[in-house]
Amino acid sequence: MYKKKLIYIKFFLFFIFFTNISLSSETNLLKQEWSFKGLTGKFDRSSLQRGYQVYNEVCASCHSMNLLSYRNLGEEGGPEFSVEQVKAIAANFEVTDGPNNDGEMFTRPGRPSDKFVSPYPNVQAAMAANGGAYPPDMSVLVKARKGGADYIYSVLMGYEEAPQGFELEEGVYYNKYMDGNKIKMANPLSDDLITYADGTSSTVSQMSKDVTTFLTWAAEPHLESRHKMGLKVIIYLIIFTVLIYLSMKRLWSRIDSKK
Ligand code: HEC
Predict the structure, then answer these.
(1) What is the spatial distance between Cα 168 and Cα 180, in angstroms, rounded to a whole number?
(2) Cis omega (within 30 of 0) on the bond before 99?
(3) Pocket test for ligand 1, best of 56, 57, 63, 154 (most atoms within 8 A of CB)
(4) Is the pLDDT of residue 76 over 80?
(5) Between residues 16 and 189, the one the model is more confident about
(6) What is the pLDDT of residue 257?
(7) pLDDT tens digits along 216-231
(8) Torsion over CA of 230, 37, 12 and 240, rounded to 10 degrees?
(9) Rounded to an integer, what distance in angstroms lies between the CA atom of residue 155 and that of residue 161?
(10) What pLDDT is attached to residue 10?
(11) For ligand 1, which residues put their CB under 6 angstroms from it?
């Protein structure tokens, strides 16, 4: 009996120890108070809308988002642009369609059902235009990187002068949070780079925060409904536990009275 307990305790300690190790390797990232973290976390709607603006005006010239369609921008739990806004956003893009009856491809204005237009026709073209480095597709980048939102935010905030004696090749930049402190993306952000539609002041940290929020939603579009569901399940389980406890007490009370 004791042996069994000891095994449980060992297992528990082992588990705690190792989860701590995996957490501690992320502690040097810049930590933010994300509104979407935690059991009841929700996206900040205006931050999502600003984040789309940053992606569209800055990042989209190099990074694709192949898994998103313009209509997603109007869906519940996302930036929730109105139907008219989504139509207008999509119409700003030129989409290649076809072939028509003559067998030719043609371009037309985008529709909400179209996928986000990619900046490059293929991976090779993207690499050729970026000194051999591929700007990763951003649809699920937040989920694909250890540290998630904090990591993306940190990379965007992590550009610094390289320390004395640090060798940087042509087209490589110093970044505090990249592996080996090297990145082949020039700092994409600078204060007042864009003019936010809602008048928010566009500092580097504000834009980094907004675009990271937007990218987190893109990688996890159902986060809000998942959180809502989780909360309901927990409340249900609590009520269920109380009911079981009460009925158990009743059952055992009868047996006790026979004593
Ligand atoms: C001029 C083209 C260009 C623009 C504009 C650009 N990027 Fe990049 N980005 C790149 C390239 C190229 C890489 C790959 C760098 C590498 O592998 O060293 C990259 C890598 C990244 C990474 C690191 C991903 C990883 O592998 O861990 C992040 C995060 C990122 N970009 C975010 C952004 C965001 C957010 C924006 C908009 C604010 C943006 N980028 C704008 C070209 C660009």
Answers:
(1) 11
(2) yes
(3) 63
(4) yes
(5) 189
(6) 59
(7) 999 999 999 999 999 9
(8) -20
(9) 14
(10) 72
(11) 54, 58-59, 61-63, 130, 133, 135-136, 145, 152, 155-156, 183-185, 188-189, 211
